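Morning, I've got a small favour to ask if you have a moment. It would help a lot if you went through both lines with me. Thanks so much in advance, here it is.

***
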Amino acid sequence: MKLNHIIALSLLVGSSFAIAETIKGTNYQSPYCGCCKDWVKHMEDNGFELDVEYVQDMTAKKIDLGIRPQYASCHTAEIQGYTFEGHVPAEDIQRFIDSKPSRMIGLAVPGMPMGSPGMEYKDQKDPFEVVAFDENGNTMVWARHNQ
C-alpha cells in the first residue's frame, strides 16, 4: 500500500471516531429507585454518559428544572442544557439535542408507562407519548411509542 493511501485511511478512521462523541449529562434520582438505574443503563447503551446524583427531595429539583407536576416521573436528567423527565427513549433525546430547539427546554414522559426504557416488564408495552415543553408549561407531542 502506498504511503499516501495509508495516510488517507488513517485520517478517515480517525475522523469517524471524532464524530461519535459521547454526550454527557447528569441524572437526578432517588437512591431507592431501581427503574431509574435501568433508564441510565438504557442511555449508556445508546452512547450517553450520565453521572448519577442521588437526591432526597426530587420535587424541589424538578421545580428548579422547570418540570410541572403533570409531567413528573421518577427521575430528571440535565443533558446539554436541556431537561429530560422520566423514561424518555434515548433516540428521542438524541433527535431533540440534534435539532437544538430554541423555545422548548426539554422532553418528558409523564408517569411510568410499562415498556418505556427502564420500565420493561416481560412483553408488556403500554402506549405513551413524549412531550416537549417550554418554560411556560406549553407542550407539544414530540414522539408517540407503541401506538
The first strand starts at residue 23 and ends at 29. DSSP finds four helices and seven strands in the chain. The first helix runs from residue 3 to 19.
